[in-house]
Amino acid sequence: MANNHHASFETKVSFTIPFQYPVVFSHDIFSPDNPALSDCLRTLTGKPPFRALTVIDSGVDEYHPEIKTKVQEYARHHSSILETATEPLILPGGEVAKNNFTEVQKIIAASHQHQLCRQSLIICIGGGSLLDAVGFAAALIHRGLRLIRVPTTVLAQNDSGIGVKNGINLRGIKNFLGVFAPPAAVFNDALFLPTLDDRDWRSGIAEAFKVGIIKDCAFLEWLRDHLESLNRRDLATMETLIRRCAELHTNHIATAGDPFEFGSARPLDFGHWAGHKLESLSVNQLRHGEAVAIGMALDLLNAVQFGFIEDNHADIMIRALKQIGLPAWSPLLRQTDANGHLRVLEGIDEFRQHLGGTLHITMPCPLGAKTEVDKLPSTVVESSIDRLQHYDSDH
Residues 26, 27, 32, 34: is their CA dihedral positive or negative? Predict the structure, then answer.
């Protein structure tokens, strides 16, 4: 009997892992008599007390110098459930935190030095960029340490800090390296918000407009009705904005069927193909929310050209963005390469690569709902840039 050298055998491996994590809205979570964090830790698997490395954004440390002591006092008060591995590690926030491996390596080194194990925790207190970098490091250490996120900016509390993405930038490409790793818990503490500067206060509002424009017309109307109080920096109004925006974001992650983006669409990234490119072109002088605001203004005008929304609806939205103090234009939209091609158009190909080779760009159709396009001709974008520049000067 002849041997069949081409015979093969196959066995299938199939399993599911349910992911669940709380997003808690509270005030002063490191007050010893606030049980939110300790109650959450008691739900974790493993034998307490859990050793934790705390990482704090240098900007948070500057405006809240008491936070280091408060974390350690909280651990002492709740010593049966939480133990600090060492004094908090202070690292720079902002995009510099994720522009290379430097901060990631510091977290890895500290975890090794203080002998964190698979049952240990990393608690990160800071803005979205530092949360991204720390989350990336946590996912690598021992194949994944549990991460407690404490977002401290509007943008992190209503969008980037509550999802499952972690990553760093590489070679000018936003989030080129990263992992999908859900946090163990997220704690949105409103007490961090009043010390934000005006740019960071407004920057997170851009993401609220984003999710309203493509998902919730009623929320969009609420935003327009409350622009004045948001401009006055009314904390209660901002807390309402953050909660609704976070709810829309987490509902999408939980119910849209593709939380780890195995497909080729990123439906929550309206305005982001241009926004990410503008961030890189500005060498991060533009905040993420500012760049996304410009990207949304551009895509609103693109959506008009596709016939998805009415011209006056785009006008109303761009006016609202400008009313809250967000930019709708940047000279970087006119920047060209050596061949005279617009640099911002490179963002389309970079976005396509990030999606897995097939382009899917989210557009409003109409306001409060979305559609996707798989082609975005340069002529359409160039026409919208022309109009956006005139629009900016006219208004």
Answer: negative
Instruction: Give me the pLDDT at residue 258, please.
Output: 74
For residues 324-346, give the mean pLDDT. 96
Give the bridge partners for 54, in sequence order: 123
- Sorted by sequence, the CB contacts under 8 Å of residue 5 that are 6+ apart come out as none
DSSP for 126-144, written as a single string: E-HHHHHHHHHHHHHGGG-
b/e string for 14-44 if b means 16 or more Cβ within 10 A? eeeeeeebebbbeeebbbeebebbbebbeee
Q: Identify the band that residue 265 occupies on the pLDDT scale cut at 50, 70 and 90.
A: low
State whether residue 52 is helix, strand or coil: strand
Helix, strand or coil for residue 174?
strand
State mean pLDDT over 370-381. Answer: 95
CB 91 within 8 A of CB 33: no
| Residue 143 to residues 32, 181, 254, Cα–Cα distance (Å) | 32, 11, 24
Least confident span in 122-131, 327-336, 345-354: 345-354
192-199: average pLDDT: 97
Enumerate helices (H) and strands (E) in the chain, giving the number of each.
15, 11
Q: Cα(27)–Cα(150) distance, rounded to whole angstroms?
A: 12
**C-alpha–C-alpha distance, residues 71 and 79, integer Å:** 12
Asked if 273 contacts 348 with a C-beta cutoff of 8 angstroms, the reply is yes
- What does the H/E/C string look like for 178-228? EEECCCCEEEEEHHHHHHCCHHHHHHHHHHHHHHHHHHCHHHHHHHHHCHH
Give the mean pLDDT of 283-292: 94
Q: Count of residues for the chain? A: 395
* pLDDT single digits (tens) 44-74: 999 999 999 999 999 999 999 999 999 999 9
Q: Is 365 exposed, middle or buried (0-12, 13-18, 19+ CB in 10 A)?
A: middle
Shortest CA distance to 206 belongs to which of 98, 323, 312, 99? 323
Average pLDDT of 353-381? 90
Q: Which of 63, 64, 41, 171 is nearest to 119 (CA)?
A: 41
Of the chain, the end-to-end C-alpha distance in Å amounts to 85
- For 254, other C-beta atoms within 10 Å of its C-beta total 11
CA distance 370 to 269: 11
Strands 121-126 and 50-57: parallel
